[in-house]
Design brief:
Blueprint lengths: L11 E5 L3 H13 L4 E5 L2 H10 L4 E5 L7 H10 L8 E5 L5 H6 L5 E5 H4 L2 H11 L1
Parallel strand pairs: 1-2, 1-3, 3-4, 4-5
Length: 131
């Protein structure tokens, strides 16, 4: 299988996942697509702090976080005009219902399951949300 490169040359991508192994693998994968800066957070509060310190060009977010949920994180980002249109890729263990997807939208938003997050589909989604 060939890796399809994402157009990531000027991007700062923040990956939020509390599963340390998945977080590391996703960071390596996105770096492999050519992203110059890939940061990671293990929880929602840490992600909010990192976003406040430096605005990413893309947020890749796990829905189930230990401290605050993905929904709570997105609600917080929606309240701030500077972050309300942040491009977002939501990844979860299962397919989300339309209602759940509506609750999780931010800027340009795409959804992916963790089963397919480690494939060429992730590069395609990065390209879609950051154009």
């Amino acid at each position: 299988m060939t890796k399809k490169a994402a157009d990531t040359k000027q991007q700062d991508i923040l990956i939020v996942d509390d599963n340390n192994l998945l977080n590391q693998v996703m960071c390596l994968q996105v770096k492999g697509f050519g992203a110059p800066l890939v940061r990671s957070a293990k929880g929602g509060r840490q992600a909010l702090k990192m976003i406040k310190e430096r605005m990413p060009s893309l947020l890749i977010l796990d829905v189930g976080l230990p401290d605050i949920t993905g929904r709570e994180l997105i609600a917080e980002l929606r309240r701030n005009p500077l972050t309300s249109s942040l491009p977002l890729i939501v990844h979860s263990t299962t397919d989300l219902s339309e209602e759940e997807r509506t609750q999780l939208k931010l800027g340009t938003t795409r959804f992916i399951t963790k089963a397919t997050a480690f494939s060429e589909r992730l590069a395609e989604l990065i390209n879609e949300v950051t154009k």
